[in-house]
């Protein structure tokens, strides 16, 4: 018995001593110290003043409360109450058995959240996302915003100020006055080349919220598949989806829109036409133009772009758009308009006859007029809806206007600039396109330099970080017309196995470029914050890919898809098991 007692005492004595030792920095902690920040914010706030004075948070005693104005507004309360509960889970991540008491520390006990403006049910392009956040040396921290959307951004910032030191949750005395540089900050995801199931879309929405990205551009359908399940035209997905398991029901869409809304994210669907419609023709072949081989394109598809000569095409689009408008809440609908090859229209007698009736010549200029005619009619359809609805189009629609000299597209239509000129694509440089778009009075969003589907060896986020939407020659009024940008991820080589890792943290570079001040341009200086932010996302369950040799204390666990601790805490567990095994051997074989 004495031997058994001695063994137990020895085990616990060794465990206690090792626990004290294991909290000392390892060589790789020292080597990594300058590479990883602690308690920094991504994207960087507009104005931030922080100190080295730290406060502790007590997971059992800390609270977040709303002011009377926020609590009494139904729309504010609807968003803020779940957000506060959600962020409470994000604030405290140290496992309970690894936490150290904060007794005797300077402790922050409460965060007060105040909204003073009007809260809307859904975020929109004009939503105010500004906020101020104060973490004082004593007393309550305060978060003030005009809207619930600003309060959400402030809660995210507050959660990022918290860092871990020796088993305690800490943050520094800090003052922040923040607002986004651009109102439209988006990620575009293609779910037509590969079907991306709703849970992965949801995970991407979480990552977007962690990066203050506020637009999910859902490129839902394309030539390859039509996964949107339409009640009005069930054959669109019935015959156009890959399988009937690879579809988004109206309930799926509503769940994505609602999940996004609760995180201050707009969902803008894209139903691209008149090109990229092969999947539409599987169930509705009369919607498309019948093509014949020509000397220009011998291998032309049998069915090409939309048949823009038929009134039935516009009746079809009117009914479909009406359904889309009811399912999706945002006032904007992306109409597409890119990459329409005119050879099919050139080969079709019905189209040729229609062009003659309209006075369009059988030339590039005439076909540019023809596509402009089609898009103009679609925009007029949107304008007739009871709920305000406006369009976004790819830059070809504007370029066709230049070719045809026919600027009939309404100025409240947003031009989406996407082309570039390098080894991957031979197009117009965005710094040449944006001056023309804005000089004509159109608002623009940029994607040209942020194509995340192109990957490089090594870390490539710095090149996204360096691209700026205002990098073009123009006056102040023209710069104001550029309302933001989007990072597209086309899915030819992306599906559920790699979509989240391909996006993050590379899209984080775009997030900071679109939120933070323009003079914040040094990717090297931003790297320690990026490394901390990447590990923070991993800890929160986002499968963000590494940016070079390093480690996160809470690594991604491939086995059960949840983060797991690594490093010192994991070593502690192994040593404890070894000590217990040694004790068992002593008791069993009488080694003492």
UniProtKB/TrEMBL annotation:
Return the Pfam families for the record.
Glyco_hydro_20, Glycohydro_20b2
User: What does the record give under GO molecular function?
Assistant: beta-N-acetylhexosaminidase activity
Instruction: Indicate the enzyme's highest-level EC class.
Output: hydrolase
Q: Transmembrane among the record's keywords? A: no
Q: Which GO terms describe its cellular component?
A: lysosome; membrane
Q: Which Gene3D superfamilies match?
A: Chitobiase/beta-hexosaminidase domain 2-like, Glycosidases
Output this protein's name: Beta-hexosaminidase
- EC assignment: the record states 3.2.1.52
Per UniProt, residues of the Glycoside hydrolase family 20 catalytic domain are 182-517
Domain (Beta-hexosaminidase eukaryotic type N-terminal): give its ranges: 41-161
Q: Which UniProt keywords apply?
A: Disulfide bond, Glycoprotein, Glycosidase, Hydrolase, Signal
The domain of life for this entry's organism is Eukaryota
Which cysteines does the record link by disulfide bonds? 76-119, 291-344, 535-552
Give the SUPFAM superfamilies listed for this entry. Answer: (Trans)glycosidases (SSF51445), beta-N-acetylhexosaminidase-like domain (SSF55545)
What is the annotated signal peptide range for this record?
1-19
- Residues annotated as the enzyme's active site: 339
């Amino acid at each position: 018995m004495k031997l058994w007692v001695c063994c137990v005492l020895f085990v616990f004595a060794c465990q206690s001593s090792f626990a004290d030792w294991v909290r000392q920095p390892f060589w790789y902690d020292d080597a990594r110290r300058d590479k990883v920040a602690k308690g920094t914010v991504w994207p960087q706030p507009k104005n931030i003043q922080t100190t080295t004075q730290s406060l502790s948070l007590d997971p059992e005693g800390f609270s977040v409360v709303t002011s009377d104005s926020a609590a009494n507004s139904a729309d504010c309360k609807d968003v803020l109450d779940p957000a506060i509960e959600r962020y409470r889970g994000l604030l405290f991540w140290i496992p309970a058995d690894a936490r150290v008491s904060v007794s005797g520390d300077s402790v922050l006990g409460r965060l007060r959240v105040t909204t003073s403006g009007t809260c809307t049910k859904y975020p929109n392009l004009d939503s105010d996302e500004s906020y101020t956040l104060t973490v004082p040396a004593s007393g309550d921290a305060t978060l003030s915003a005009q809207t619930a959307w600003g309060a959400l951004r402030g809660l995210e910032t507050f959660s990022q100020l918290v860092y871990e030191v020796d088993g305690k949750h800490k943050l520094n005395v800090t003052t922040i006055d923040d607002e986004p540089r651009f109102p439209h900050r988006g990620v575009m995801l293609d779910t037509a080349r590969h079907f991306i199931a709703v849970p992965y879309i949801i995970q991407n929405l979480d990552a977007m919220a962690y990066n203050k990205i506020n637009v999910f551009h859902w490129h839902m359908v394309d030539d390859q598949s039509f996964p949107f399940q339409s009640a009005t035209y069930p054959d669109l997905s019935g015959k156009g989806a890959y399988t009937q398991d690879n579809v988004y029901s109206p309930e799926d869409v509503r769940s994505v829109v609602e999940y996004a809304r609760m995180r201050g994210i707009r969902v803008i669907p894209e139903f691209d036409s008149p090109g990229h419609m092969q999947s539409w023709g599987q169930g509705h072949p009369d919607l498309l133009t019948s093509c014949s081989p020509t000397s220009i394109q011998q291998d032309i598809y049998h069915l090409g772009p939309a048949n823009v000569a038929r009134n039935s095409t516009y009746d079809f689009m009117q009914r479909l758009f009406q359904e889309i408008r009811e399912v999706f809440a945002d006032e904007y609908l992306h109409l597409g308009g890119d990459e329409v090859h005119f050879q099919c229209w050139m080969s079709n007698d019905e189209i040729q006859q229609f062009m003659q009736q309209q006075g369009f010549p059988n030339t590039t200029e005439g076909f540019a007029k023809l596509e402009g005619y089609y898009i103009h009619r679609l925009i007029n359809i949107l304008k007739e809806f009871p709920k305000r609805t406006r369009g976004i189009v790819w830059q070809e629609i504007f370029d066709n206007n230049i070719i045809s000299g026919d600027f009939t597209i309404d100025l409240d239509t947003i031009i989406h600039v996407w082309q570039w000129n390098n080894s991957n694509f031979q197009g117009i440089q965005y710094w040449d396109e944006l001056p023309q778009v804005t000089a004509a009075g159109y608002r623009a969003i940029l994607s040209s330099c942020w194509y995340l589907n192109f990957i490089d060896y090594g870390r490539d986020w710095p090149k996204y970080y360096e691209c700026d939407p205002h990098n073009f020659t123009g006056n102040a009024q023209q710069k104001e017309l550029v309302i933001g940008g989007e990072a597209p991820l086309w899915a030819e080589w992306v599906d559920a196995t790699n979509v989240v890792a391909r996006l993050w943290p590379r899209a984080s570079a775009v997030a900071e470029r679109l939120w933070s001040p323009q003079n914040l341009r040094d990717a090297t200086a931003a790297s320690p914050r990026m490394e901390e932010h990447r590990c923070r996302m991993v800890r929160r369950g986002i499968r963000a890919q590494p940016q070079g040799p390093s480690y996160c204390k809470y690594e991604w666990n491939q086995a059960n898809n949840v983060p797991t601790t690594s490093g010192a805490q994991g070593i502690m567990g192994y040593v404890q098991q070894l000590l217990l095994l040694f004790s068992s051997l002593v008791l069993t074989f009488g080694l003492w």
